[in-house]
Amino acid sequence: MTNILISGASIAGTTLAYWLREYGFTPTVVERANEVREGGYKVDIRGAALDVVERMGLLEHIRSLRTDVRTGSVVDGAGRQVASMDGDSFGGRVHQDAELHRGDLTRLLHEATSGVEYLFGDSIASIDGTQVTFDSGLVRHFDLVVGADGLHSNTRALAFGPEDRYVRDMGYNVSIFSVPNHLGLDREELTYVGPGRTALLYSTRQDAGAKAMFLWQSDDKARERAEQQRILAEAYTGSGWEVPRLLEGMADAPDFYYDSLSQVRMDSWHAGRVALIGDAAYCASPASGQGTSLALVGAYVLAGELKRAAGDHTAAFPAYEARMRPFVEANQALGTGNIKRMVMATPFQVRMSMIMLRVVNLLPGKDRIMAKVVEPIHRAATAIDLPSY
Questions:
Q1: In what residue span(s) does the FAD-binding domain sit (predicted)?
Q2: In angstroms, rounded to a whole number, what is the distance separating the alpha carbons of residues 358 and 81?
Q3: Other C-beta atoms within 10 Å of 309: how many?
């Protein structure tokens, strides 16, 4: 029986643990945090990923956890509504796509892996063949190791080399944090667009508060929270709408998140007995809207190829990569294209975009127009045929 260590109790990591156990392997998950990470922003499950969660028997439960965002609107600096549409169209969701909180999905997947060994509060320090040494000093032997530990993957650094070889900065930063729902939003999303910077605020069915999200062009990088908040505040100096008030909330936010928008580009996602999945291998950035779906599908395919190869990683790892790479490339291309529409570079682009949105909002066929706009998202989300392993 193949013993497989998974680094990261992420969506990718817990999904992989589920399928490995289903196929008769023995997974162990190590997670740096002391418990499953709660909270987080809202995420989408689209296309092929819906098939994965349906095969896990989780689709109906996921639907019961949907955010139920009803409307999405674009506002100008004075707070006037420029355009409005239903929440699914605004979020690029079609057919049966589902949106829910990341923390709800992570918790659901963790519950589905009840009985799997989890090592919380620890991390991999070194990998030497089948021997793994942990930061805690624990030494264990595993047949295979899979890194599912995100954009800044420790496993990738240990097995493949420094982060700067693979992480490609897209020239934008992102910050998300909880704020009071001072506008009294009820399952609504509001977006304000300025030159080189976008801000949005949303409320969901399960949350009495709200989440603020900021996307802006920037080459400034920072690790310390105080420096990150200084950079964010300076980037939005002079912004209209509710931006100043939203920024006031970041100092006390318990879930303040800040990072660069980046993609991971690698020639290979496996080296010896180590493989990577999810953001660790092929982060497409939040701009793609497909990170969660890539994680779910990648975990399913890797586990399935290991089953098909009876645990022989020399056959399974290349097969996993061959099946996944076209899907990954389609969704990474989606991310690089989307960000240019999400963050307008110049005041002229902002003005023209607002004019177009006002015009489209008045047209009787605006729903059909929006369907064409979101079609590339659906096409990328379904750009893989999932085998039944």
A1: 2-329
A2: 9
A3: 16
